[in-house]
Design a protein that fits this description.
194 residues, alpha+beta, Aminopeptidase, 8-stranded mixed beta sheet, 5 helices
Length: 194
């Protein structure tokens, strides 16, 4: 099934700025299901109850309607950085590329929205993220780039930041490209009077 956007932002505002490609669902049931799925996956729920135009989340449901995957990102205030978050896959669909597909969706969406750099916290999935181009990063640099991100605020408030492992990657290779015009050469340049 296609990914469906779950947006805490849409529940109290007109909608998120300029991020398309998937339908937005603002039903509290979807948000509740996502919350339960992330809790069962041992991922943070930070920010799910705080509507923000910077938080972008998607779910993947199987034909029966059960959530089998989730993904998302939270952008910096200026939109140049993205904290990849909430990437989880149900055990029933693991080892089929679902995690890479979900993570790739969040990365592509963040790049399309203008982010130049992606960051994330992960203490146990480093090899997975390295396959997607991430390298170890300084957690304080992540916190400086995304000081308003819900995870960063939570980890600072609880003292957990010092125990987190940060990862990062540039997003230039995922940025949408526009067709380039052919270069003008002496053979193709318009001649006066022709």
């Amino acid at each position: 099934m296609p990914l469906v956007r779950v947006s805490p932002w849409a529940t109290s505002h007109a909608g998120p700025p300029n991020v398309a490609s998937t339908p937005t669902v603002s039903m509290s049931a979807d948000l509740g299901d996502l919350r339960a799925f992330l809790a069962a996956s041992d991922l943070t729920l930070a920010g799910l109850d705080a509507p923000s135009p910077h938080l972008h989340l998607w779910i993947d449901r199987d034909p029966s309607g059960t959530i089998v995957g989730s993904t998302g990102y939270e952008s910096s205030a200026d939109g140049t950085h993205a904290l990849i978050r909430s990437v989880a896959v149900a055990a029933t669909v693991r080892s089929r590329g679902a995690g890479s597909r979900l993570a790739g969706h969040a990365l592509t969406q963040a790049a399309a929205a203008g982010a130049d750099h992606a960051w994330l916290f992960s203490r146990r999935s480093g090899p997975f993220w390295q396959k997607l181009g991430f390298t170890p990063a300084d957690r304080d640099a992540l916190a400086a780039a995304l000081p308003d991100a819900h995870q960063v605020q939570l980890f600072r408030a609880t003292g957990q930041l010092a125990h987190e492992v940060a990862w990062s990657r540039p997003l230039a290779d995922l940025r949408p490209t526009t067709p380039q015009e052919a270069p003008v050469t002496s053979d193709t340049a318009a001649r006066p009077g022709s």
